[in-house]
Structures are given as structure tokens and as C-alpha cells.
């Protein structure tokens, strides 16, 4: 299991793995202050995983704030159990330490449980029960200890973590949540192995055979050759329970008259947390845009991939994607785990602001500005983050509020 785990994650057992994975924890910011909702982490290949966890944490901070938890929120004057009183969004985003710990442990347990239970429904829909066998949901958590179980050799290069793991299995979500909270310090220790033990737990909960099937190539692995801030397949794994490299809805069959059509499995159900991508043109001139199940999630939270950089875009109004009027003009927050933070106003009302901006830039009436020239002017004047927002709200006017924290 140790060697298979290293192989499917890092691509090799005989070579040393990426060192940052054993030195990156899910470290919380100071409680009760600005950006207390956030995780802080260095920019390296763990960024995709840490950002996905951050998005799940925001879901709990903003939309899973049950009355029993309201008493632990900083500045809360709400009587426990009084659900008619609303907590301001600013308060929810400045949790105290107790609330931070609660949400981080719930988020870790949630993504591990999702990976362990996803196949029970997905394989039924694929008609693939014969290959994997449908069992009750089972989550696996691995934790390091001192004694290595696999010795250093020409076939296996010790990394100080993988060969020391203890394996714990859970068939009940409540038990899993209690266990994760008890050992949360191993996940959140700054400079510790939190990132890799979470990834290993997610991979083993999903199952190594299923991970290889998700990646669509038994010879491939998750991390080798990945972009600087990690692969999007890790984000998909944590948000949907499947390690697919594809962002489209459902199944696409790819082939031509000379080859058999090969199924490419994308996102099979609508996600609570979405993904937005702006990366320009990719190989073959095909834009890699998510399908509607990721672009329009159940909650207004998106993991963003903007020209190779991961972040989180979110709104504090649960009704944003359910109510047309709420989507006309609203504020949206952007955060990265390196500490960048900015608030923008998005205006999607009927006026085509892109045409107006183009015409104004040329001091000409809109009718005298060729359409292709308008688009070029807007493209030059628009930041990558604005272009990313336009992938969701195409003709929106975007205004930056205040000074961004970088």
C-alpha cells in the first residue's frame, strides 16, 4: 500500500517526492481579525489542495452556521437557538479561534468522507458495479508516527512520512469528525505534513484503483509534471470525490472514424462549491471552461484558476445564484492563501458596459467603433481577475472597492 500510494500520487517510489508536501500544514490565521476565515500557505504545488479546503471552510463559515454554533462567533450578541436573528457577514468572516478549529475539522472530515462515499452513487450511474463492487461508505485517515514500516532501498526512497503511516477506517461520519478534531494539530501544524496526510487520506478513501480509473491512464499519477500551484484534479477530488482532470458536465465520448470513442468522465452532479477558470487559449486553441455544474454551484463560492494561480471567489448571500434580482448588482470577495484579499462590485444590469467602455476610450460614438476593436480595447484594459469574473458574468461591469491587500 505504501509503494502504491507513492506511485499514484508522486509517480515513483524510487525517487524523492516533492518536499513541500511534507512541510505544508493547513495553518489558520489569527482569530477574530481581518481574514480570520483564511488559511495561509506558501505558493507551491500544495496550493490547489489548500485552496479547495479553504473554499469548503468558507461554506461552513457563511452558510452552515447553525444556531448552536452562533455563541462561539466573535462579537456575537445572538442568543443560542434564536434563528430569527441574522449574524452580519462581517462577523461570520472574523471567527474566533474556537470557531476556526471547529470549521477546519469539519471541512477536513467532509472532504475525506466525500472521497470515501462518492463511488456508491457514481458507479451505479456508470453501470460499473462489477469492477469495483458497491459497499457502504468508508473513509480512511492516515496519520504519521515515529517508526518506519518500509525501509530505504533501491526500490523505495524514504520520505519520512509515507512509510510511517497508521491507517484508520471509519464507516460513520460523526466518528470521523470526532477523530479529525482530536488529531487536528497534525493537519494544521505550520511546517508539518498536513497537506500530504490529507491528500493521502483522500486518495485512500477514494481507492487507488478508482483514482487510476479517474485519471484515465493507469500509468499516470496525480502530481508529476503538474503546474506550479498543483493540478486542478486535486480540487475536483476534494469537491466532488472523484479525481477527474475534466471540468465538463457528464460524459463526453471522444473519438473519430479511425478510433473507438473513449468516454471522458466529467462532473456528474451539481457541486456545492464551483470552479471558474481563466487561462486563455490552451493546446489546440480550445478553452478549458467548466460546465454548468461547476460554473453555477449550489452556493456562491468558487475555486478560481486564473492564469495558473489558485484563489477563492465568494459572495455572502446564499440567494445570489437563486434570485435574478440578487445577481443584478452585488459584491464579491477574492482571497488567496498567500494573503491577497480584495472586494469587487459586479454589475450585470442590461447596459452593455463593455461597449460603452470601448467607445469612451476612443472618444467616439459606440456605432463608430468596430466590434473587434472594442473587444481588443476591453481586453487590454481588463485585469486577469476581471476576465475570470467575465467567464461567469460575461457583460458585467466590475469595480474595485478600496485598496487590495496583496
What does this structure look like?
The protein has 406 residues and is α+β, with helices and mostly antiparallel strands. The protein contains 14 helices and 12 strands. The protein has helices spanning 2-10, 47-63, 89-92, 97-126, 129-132, 173-182, 184-188, 194-206, 208-215, 232-240, 292-295, 353-362, 371-381, 384-390; strands at residues 27-28, 39-40, 139-144, 165-170, 251-254, 262-265, 274-278, 301-306, 309-314, 329-335, 341-347, 397-405. Strands 7-8-9-10-11-12 form a 6-stranded mixed β-sheet, sandwiched between helices. β5 (251-254) and β6 (262-265) form a beta hairpin. The two termini are 42 Å apart. 38% of the residues are buried. Mean pLDDT is 83; it is low at 67-87, 121-133, 353-369 and 373-378.
Q: Can you summarize this structure?
A:
The protein contains 14 helices and twelve strands. It has helices at 2-10, 47-63, 89-92, 97-126, 129-132, 173-182, 184-188, 194-206, 208-215, 232-240, 292-295, 353-362, 371-381, 384-390, and strands at residues 27-28, 39-40, 139-144, 165-170, 251-254, 262-265, 274-278, 301-306, 309-314, 329-335, 341-347, 397-405.
Amino acid at each position: 500500500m505504501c509503494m502504491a500510494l507513492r506511485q499514484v500520487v508522486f509517480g515513483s517510489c524510487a525517487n524523492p517526492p516533492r518536499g513541500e508536501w511534507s512541510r505544508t500544514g493547513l495553518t489558520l490565521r489569527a482569530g477574530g481579525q481581518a481574514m480570520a476565515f483564511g488559511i495561509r500557505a506558501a505558493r507551491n504545488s500544495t496550493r490547489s489542495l489548500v485552496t479547495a479546503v479553504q473554499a469548503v471552510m468558507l461554506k461552513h463559515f457563511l452558510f452552515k452556521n447553525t444556531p448552536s454554533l452562533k455563541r462561539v462567533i466573535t462579537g456575537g450578541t445572538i442568543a443560542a437557538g434564536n434563528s430569527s436573528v441574522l449574524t452580519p457577514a462581517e462577523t461570520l468572516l472574523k471567527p474566533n479561534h474556537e470557531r476556526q478549529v471547529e470549521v477546519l475539522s469539519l471541512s477536513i472530515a467532509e472532504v475525506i468522507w466525500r472521497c470515501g462515499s462518492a463511488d456508491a452513487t457514481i458507479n451505479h450511474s456508470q453501470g460499473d458495479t462489477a469492477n469495483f463492487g458497491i459497499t457502504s461508505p468508508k473513509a480512511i485517515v492516515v496519520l504519521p508516527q515515529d517508526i518506519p514500516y518500509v525501509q530505504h532501498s533501491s526500490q523505495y526512497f524514504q520520505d519520512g512520512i509515507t512509510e510511517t503511516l497508521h491507517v484508520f477506517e471509519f464507516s460513520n461520519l460523526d466518528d470521523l469528525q470526532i477523530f479529525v478534531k482530536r488529531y487536528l494539530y497534525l493537519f494544521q501544524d505550520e511546517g508539518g505534513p498536513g497537506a500530504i496526510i490529507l491528500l493521502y487520506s483522500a486518495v485512500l478513501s477514494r481507492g487507488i484503483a478508482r483514482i487510476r480509473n479517474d485519471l484515465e491512464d493507469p500509468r499516470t499519477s496525480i502530481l508529476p509534471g503538474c503546474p506550479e500551484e498543483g493540478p486542478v484534479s486535486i480540487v475536483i477530488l476534494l469537491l466532488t470525490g472523484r479525481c477527474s482532470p475534466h471540468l465538463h458536465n457528464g460524459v463526453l465520448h471522444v473519438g473519430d472514424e479511425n478510433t473507438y470513442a473513449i468516454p471522458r468522465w466529467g462532473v456528474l452532479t451539481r457541486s456545492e462549491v464551483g470552479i471558474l477558470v481563466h487561462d486563455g487559449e490552451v493546446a489546440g486553441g480550445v478553452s478549458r471552461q467548466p460546465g454548468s455544474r461547476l460554473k453555477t454551484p449550489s452556493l456562491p463560492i468558487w475555486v478560481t484558476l486564473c492564469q495558473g494561480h489558485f484563489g477563492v471567489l465568494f459572495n455572502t448571500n446564499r440567494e445570489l445564484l437563486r434570485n435574478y434580482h440578487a445577481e443584478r448588482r452585488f459584491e464579491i470577495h477574492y482571497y488567496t492563501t498567500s494573503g491577497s484579499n480584495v472586494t469587487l462590485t459586479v454589475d450585470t444590469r442590461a447596459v452593455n458596459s463593455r461597449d460603452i467602455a470601448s467607445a469612451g476610450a476612443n472618444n467616439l460614438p459606440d456605432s463608430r467603433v468596430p466590434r473587434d476593436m472594442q473587444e481588443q480595447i476591453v481586453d487590454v484594459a481588463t485585469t486577469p481577475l476581471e476576465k475570470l469574473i467575465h467567464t461567469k458574468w460575461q457583460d458585467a461591469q466590475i469595480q474595485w472597492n478600496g485598496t487590495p491587500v496583496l
